[in-house]
Amino acid sequence: MNVCKLLIVLAASIGSVSMNPLKHSDLLTEGDYAKEAAEQGGAPALSSGNTNPYWESFNKWQCFGADEADIQCVGINSGAERVIILSVIHDHKFLEFSSDPASIVECENLRARWAELLKNERSFCLYAALLQEDPGSASGIPGVERWQTWIASHLKTRSGDWDYQTDKSRRLEEE
Known about the structure:
This protein is an alpha+beta fold. The protein is 31% helix and 36% strand. The protein contains 4 helices and 9 strands. The chain has helices at 2-19, 30-40, 104-118, 164-174, and strands at residues 46-47, 56-57, 60-65, 69-76, 81-90, 93-98, 123-135, 146-157, 160-163. Strands 3, 4, 5, 6, 7, 8 and 9 form a 7-stranded mixed sheet that branches. Strands 1-2 form a two-stranded antiparallel sheet. The radius of gyration is 20 Å and the shape is globular. The termini are far apart. The model is unreliable at 1-21 (pLDDT under 50).
């Protein structure tokens, strides 16, 4: 009889977990959505400038499970600088989110900040603009159909957030 009760309790608990899916959008406020809508009508976050063909990209919010994220500092310019990359594989896409190139120390500090924000979190949201998109085969990852590079301007979790403009101002003050 105890085994039957245990099975019933387990079945009920599994049902309740699956009935409460993770809602990443709970992290975003009406203000976050309003910011995105307002920016869509203004100047693009990224553009090709005067080159042909012309392209532009606007920031948008995207949310993911924290367990999907991998954060690294990757060397560029023969290793003289680093760029932070938060990568996610989601819906058959390999997504890379990055910020400005920085010194090794600055990149490691930012990597530690982002990792701390994601620590013990179920989800996170990024506000970013698409820089480029390539076929998934370019990533070398099986099952990936598209490889996208995004420039992040905001990272948000329940425990806090990171904002590009605030971070940039802080670094300028320290110089």
